[in-house]
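Re: nicotinamide-adenine-dinucleotide structure - here you go.
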Amino acid sequence: MNILVTGGSGFIGSALIRFLIAHTEHQVMNLDKLTYAANPAALAEVESDPRYRFRQLDICDAAGVAQVMAEFEPDWVMHLAAESHVDRSIAGPAEFIQTNIVGTYNLLEQARAYWSKLAADKKADFRFHHISTDEVYGDLPHPDELDRHAALSMTNPVIAKSESEVAISSEAISKVQRLPLFTEQTAYAPSSPYSASKAGSDHLVRAWHRTYGLPVVVSNCSNNYGPYQHREKLIPQTIWNALQGKPIPLYGRGQQIRDWLYVDDHVRGLYRVVSSGQPGQTYNIGGHNEKRNLEVVKAICALLEEMAPSELNPNIDSYSCEPGSADSYHALIKFVADRPGHDLRYAIDASKIEATLGWRPSETFESGLRKTVRWYLDNQACCHPS
Ligand code: NAD
């Protein structure tokens, strides 16, 4: 197969391309604008492979995209190119609307024109795989919130004489409590300019299937982590700041819950979806790893603290914190004013992809995080500049 990957120089796109070159026989064309978020070092190991090609291009460039499609003749398009950082979308949404919505529209139109001219057998095999996020669903009830609401609704406030009576009710309710998850049927309710722009692009992709018959598949995934992620994201930022002895910022009280998935597990899921998913279908991908942000940051600090100084990168001459000493990293955690509109909780029900495509994550959060911390220690030269 010829696979056109957009955004292949980013965090997930580069992991996907490394996987495709290492584990399949496919030809890969990476189409990427190389924004601040791209990290060409993440593709160093595939650059000399004859099955890998690269073209620097904006997905909004209609003529450029049409030319790449005509020359490369893709069987599958895997569309990852996007502006992806929520904080940046709040500070400046324009770029998010342009790339995520207009860029996806342009790619769909070029794909449709190219696909409509394909011979019948090639036409049937063609896939447009749109890679999206669980953030399109908005947020879910948080266990703390649910406890409070449930307790208040089940404890008659007129009869309840003290706070402790509410607490007792809450404890009883939490025994039978089952928190909801995002399914493929969950209604869209995006909160940030980023998630709204991704929601818009998801709708466009589904409309191009329904209206024009373009064979699309959509996947919505939870938070990824792993090698080569940009330092502006929570896990690399925490590792990097800890190693530099800089404050580790955490929004609010760090109680927001995210469902974490190791990037290579996501990439295997994407390959299942593009190769075996049914046209017109959506697949949620997630790792069943709901963690509060504070828990994640504390877990990283604990991993760094348990490492002997000799395990840390000898190329870094000085650590402001004494590595290996108890509590050195935890002391750097600093709570900062919460992000406006911050979603409380994300959690994915991945039962559809598990049951229909046989996908399962292979890393637990503990094993994936350990690998990730180790990788950042060993590869600091490959990380993005600050
Ligand atoms: P990233 O920001 O690391 O990489 C995005 C890549 O897209 C960069 O290489 C950038 O240069 C490229 N790009 C941006 N605008 C472009 C344009 N106009 N034309 C061509 N290329 C352009 O993003 P990521 O974390 O790797 O995410 C990839 C995709 O997966 C995104 O669509 C994102 O919404 C989705 N996603 C990400 C996560 C996550 O946790 N990171 C989770 C679920 C879904």
